[in-house]
Design brief:
The structure is a single chain. With 384 residues, this protein is an alpha/beta fold. The chain has helices at 19-23, 28-42, 60-65, 67-70, 91-102, 123-126, 140-143, 156-162, 171-180, 226-238, 254-263, 276-285, 300-307, 318-324, 336-348, 350-364, 369-382; strands spanning 12-16, 48-52, 111-116, 129-136, 165-168, 188-190, 213-217, 244-248, 269-272, 288-291, 312-315, 329-331. The protein has two domains: 4-194 and 368-382, Rossmann fold (3-Layer(aba) Sandwich), CATH 3.40.50; 197-364, Glycogen Phosphorylase B (Rossmann fold). It is 41% helix and 15% strand.
Length: 384
């Protein structure tokens, strides 16, 4: 028999369920799981064998990162006309919906782990593992006093209590979870997110935008405080700074369009839905990236901006301090005038913006998806 320290370590079979890949064609959470799947697929030394519990997907991240696992997959079954989206419905209807859209599981035998990609996984998927892991992306609904009795977060706390391993993407999120769901601290592991190496590349070209602009990335839900940025842009333009606004994300509502048009001229506004390389180019050419949110679980766009050499202006909340450290310029949360002052300071002084680019680059260099995958693999083994 070999000595214990030279015994062969077997790979763990880790299965990822379908829920987030039905919910998102692209997006932060599905990117996270696509990055993990890609890292485990392309780095066999991590000794994790990733498996997908579905045979259909439209997810752009997954298809681009792991073609060896997805090239034979069909697109999602379309939702029949007249039938509303049912992923937030009762458990039985939700399970039928997820199976119909993403196909039957091809996995034979029990995996070592199922890592739930969101909070209402299909029951049959969860039953295919010896252990259950769940990732907490944020505790925003709880911290804002929202009910978790319906919608996509229904079952979130129950799933976390049931899980054998709870991964929090920041210490802020871990502390909030411990406050809202006590007596489960023993199974929480903090594993920060990484940033794709593509954001460091300088070969993305320049976007066809002919004015200096601030960049906003992501959804514009109320707590994201997009309205604060619009008011601040209007304020700095009144001070004589000819800055525009580029919005990368979902189409704007009629109310948002009206709000933005009242704040700045049409030739100083662009709305885009960029692919990853286009997003990197937008960061690289921006005067600054602005993150005015009042609550987040991490703030991945901060790392993307840092890696792209873009100064970051962020609301002064604990999780942003945790992610960005001294590399960002902070403003008082909820204050459009404080944000306007921050924008003026960063965009009016080349020395400040140059220093911020260097600090941000160094900060981003401390994060990588491979590091996230290594820590995740270690957590699977520690809690197996």
């Amino acid at each position: 028999m070999l000595p214990r320290d030279t015994e062969r370590v077997e790979s763990l079979r880790v299965a990822y369920d379908r829920e987030i890949f039905v919910r998102q064609q692209r997006g932060g959470v599905s990117r996270y799981f696509a990055e993990l799947t890609a890292a485990f697929t392309h780095h066999p030394e991590l000794l994790i064998s990733p498996e997908l519990l579905f045979t259909r997907t439209d997810n752009a991240h997954l298809r681009a990162m792991v073609p060896e696992l997805t090239s034979a997959m069909s697109p999602l079954h379309p939702v029949p006309r007249g039938i509303p989206r049912m992923v937030n419905s009762t458990d039985l209807v939700k399970d039928l919906y997820l199976r119909y859209r993403a196909g039957a599981s091809p996995i034979i035998g029990a995996a070592d782990w199922v890592h739930a990609t969101y909070f209402r996984p299909m029951g049959a998927d969860v039953r295919q593992a010896r252990k259950l892991a769940v990732t907490l992306y944020d505790m925003t609904p709880e911290s804002l006093g929202k009910s978790l009795s319906s919608g996509p977060y229904r079952g979130k706390h129950e799933l976390a209590r049931r899980a054998d391993l709870v991964i929090a993407i920041s210490h802020t999120t871990a502390a909030q979870f411990a406050a809202f769901v006590p007596d489960h601290e023993h199974k929480i592991v903090v594993i920060p997110l990484g940033v794709d190496a593509a954001f460091y590349r300088a070969d993305h070209g320049r976007p066809s935008i002919d004015f200096p602009y601030l960049l906003f990335v992501g959804s514009r839900q109320q707590y994201k405080r997009f309205d604060l940025l619009v008011a601040a842009v209007q304020s700095v333009r009144a001070r004589g700074l000819d800055l525009g606004l580029v919005i990368a994300g979902h189409p704007m509502s009629a109310e948002e369009q009206q709000q933005v048009r009242a704040a700045l001229p049409a030739n100083r506004l662009r709305h885009l839905t960029p692919a990853d390389d286009e997003l990197a180019a937008l960061y690289q050419s921006a005067v600054a990236f602005v993150f005015p949110s009042q609550s987040e679980g991490f703030g991945l766009p901060i790392l993307e901006a840092f890696a792209s050499g873009c100064p970051v202006i962020a609301s002064d909340i604990p999780v942003f301090r945790e992610v960005a450290g001294a590399a960002a310029h902070y403003f008082t949360p909820g204050s459009s005038e404080s944000l306007a002052d921050a924008i003026t300071a960063v965009t009016s002084d080349d020395t400040i913006s140059t220093d911020m680019r260097a600090l941000g680059h160094d900060r981003a260099a401390q994060a990588s998806w491979l590091s996230t995958a290594r820590k995740t693999a270690a957590a699977y083994r520690d809690f197996a």
